[in-house]
Sequence to fold (66 residues):
Amino acid sequence: MQLHWTDINDIAIELEEKHPDIDVVNIRFTDLFNYITSLKNFTGDPKKCNEKVLEAIQMAWLEERD
Fold:
């Protein structure tokens, strides 16, 4: 399954599986961006990312952890 920026919950699941020890609350958006774009199935255009998308993914990741 290919992941794009709109696949917020799926990205959050993948991030939690790959990086279970990351401090999601205090993560820098530059680090979050790098984690997302390095996911094996991620094929989204890096130019289509913005702060709103990263924040949504961060919140979904936090919910996934709970």
